[in-house]
Write a structure and sequence with these properties.
ADH-like_C, 6-stranded parallel β-sheet, 28% helix, Zn-ADH-like_protein, alpha/beta, 7-stranded mixed β-sheet
Length: 308
């Protein structure tokens, strides 16, 4: 359960800033953390949810340029569901003028992840891309980026009620992966298999996607909404396919300059209209439990926001 409590205004430490929040993007992984999940979803409870915070810098810690005070920024925060959030100054995303909160919360993490998983898959113009969870906060950005970067065909897999949204994001074909025979629909269109699979679901959907890979096809796993990625079949690997994983936190650690550049690249894409997002629903901060309920029921498309 989520409990709202009064707390002292946090103080930024060395290398940190304090952000007065305008909006907070809710991440599905925190729904799993809150439920006391196992494996990759296990986090000690009680805990505090993370989130993508957009707002104005109210205060800076030691070693941080005071000129940041008053600037509108976005950042991933470890304690995000609050009126004020502390974030690392080195990973602040400058928000272009006029960009709405729904787009701004995508700049620090969701947008860069969408861009990087395509690059991690060594995507090339003209190739066929299959996107699982294509109506999700990251998935619908992957669909747009794949089209923008020259995909020959983009296939978005999602639940039945979200297929129109997937098509509106730019998918050439939208399939209901709740149907047992959904892979057959894909094979009808691309009988030789797809070149790239991008997966944030895991479980049976991931296994079916791997079976759809063409020879020399590549899959990148960047999430596990189903709860598991432990049972990846070996068959596709022996059929000249490649399967890899991606984590944005690890990417920042091993390639900080490239990760920083991609964040700026995504901000520019949003600024010029090359990317867009949908805030499915907004909740007051004190109704964060309602936001988690919407995400648990998997009825949302795009992003869920909290407003302080």
């Amino acid at each position: 359960m989520l409990i709202v409590e009064e707390a002292e205004r946090p103080v930024p430490g060395s290398g940190q800033v304090l952000i007065r929040a305008e909006a907070i993007g809710v991440n599905f992984v925190d729904v799993r953390f809150r439920r006391g999940g196992e494996g990759i979803f296990r986090r000690p409870l009680p805990g505090r949810p993370t989130g993508d915070v957009v707002g104005v810098v109210a205060e800076v810690g030691s070693g941080v340029d005071p000129a940041l005070v008053g600037q509108r920024v976005a950042a991933l925060a470890e304690d995000a569901y609050a009126e004020f959030a502390v974030a690392e100054a080195s990973w602040l995303a400058a928000i272009p003028p006029g960009l709405g909160a729904g787009d701004a919360v995508m700049v620090p993490m969701a947008g860069p992840v969408a861009l990087r998983v395509l690059r991690q898959a060594d995507f090339r113009p003209g190739e066929t891309v299959l996107v699982h969870s294509a109506a999700g906060g990251i998935g619908h950005l992957v669909v747009q980026l794949a089209k923008r970067l020259g995909a020959g065909l983009v296939i978005g897999a999602a639940s039945r009620g979200k297929l129109d949204f997937v098509r509106s994001a730019g998918a050439d074909l939208a399939v209901d992966y709740g149907l047992a025979d959904w892979p057959e629909r894909v094979r009808e269109v691309v009988p030789g298999g797809v070149d790239v699979v991008l997966d944030a679901v895991g479980g049976q959907v991931l296994r079916q996607g791997l079976e759809l890979l063409a020879p020399f096809g590549r899959a990148v796993i960047y999430g596990a909404a189903s709860g598991t990625v432990d049972d990846i079949p070996a068959g596709p690997l022996f059929a000249l396919r490649t399967v890899g994983g991606f984590n944005q936190t690890a990417w920042r650690e091993v390639a900080p300059e490239r990760a920083r550049a991609e964040m700026d690249e995504v901000a520019e894409l949003f600024a010029v209209g090359g990317l867009r997002t949908v805030g499915h629903v907004e909740f007051p901060l004190e109704e964060a439990a309602g936001a988690h309920k919407v995400m648990e029921e998997r009825e949302h498309v795009g992003r869920v926001l909290l407003r302080p």
